[in-house]
Amino acid sequence: MYRPAEADTRRPSKGDTNRPSKGERTRTRILDSATELFSRSGFHAVSLRDIAAHAGLTHAGLLHHFPGKESLLIEVLERRDRIDARELFPGIARPGAPVPAPAERLRLLIGVVARNARTPGLVALYAKLSAEATDPAHPAHRYFTRRYRLLRAEVSDLVRALQDESGHPGDLDPAAVAGQLLALMDGLQTQWLLEPGAVPMEELVRDFLDRLGLLPADGPEGADPTGEAEGAGAAGVSG
After folding, report:
1. What is the pLDDT of residues 200-224, one digit of tens each?
2. What is the pTM of this model?
3. Which tens digit of pLDDT belongs to each residue from 54-98?
4. CB-count exposure of residue 33 (10 Å: 0-12, 13-18, 19+)
5. Contact criterion met (CB below 8 Å) for 194 and 83
6. Burial of 200 (0-12, 13-18, 19+ CB in 10 A)
7. Signed CA dihedral, 88, 89, 94, 98: sign only
8. Which residues contact 175 (CB under 8 A, 6 or more apart)?
9. Cα–Cα distance between 130 and 166 in angstroms, integer?
């Protein structure tokens, strides 16, 4: 059941126009519940009634905000991407926003790999859906097509920035490296889901970047050491 203590029940003060409306807070509760249940049990094992009960709503109340489970799933996936993009890819999230230094962006990217190792449910969901979505008729086809297009562009830009910072621009093809890195992350996740103890994802991603000379000499730190990165219940950049 959704825990009311987690909801912000304060009354908006006069002139507080940025406070979310009741409908927005309800949508957030639904998305939080869907994220937790999809992560724990997978997409097909969870019903809209399960999500409604977890969020403290009726089935009809949930349908007032989301017409079906597929639309709710897409919103769960897109919300995770928006959270990651605010830090990793400000050019997507906030055009004109200051861009973190390349080493910091790389640290955040590696942190996503470590975070995904703590969320097998949604990692599995991403892996399965991305494969299913190769069918143009799949409801998530457009989502994944656009997602990978944006990721290739943004990771290419990061590789280019890391090369420039290292003083060796042009040694690598940023677009090729971006495609290879995303493929590595996706492939490692599949292997890790099959045999978690045999596949140290973060270590192998670091090794790949180091072999290409993209890992700073002091090495960017990985995930949030507290293990409490924002939105840790959902998958991130590559699944």
Report:
1. 999 999 999 999 999 876 655 544 4
2. 0.72
3. 999 999 999 999 999 988 988 988 887 887 777 676 655 566 667
4. buried
5. no
6. middle
7. positive
8. 152, 156
9. 34
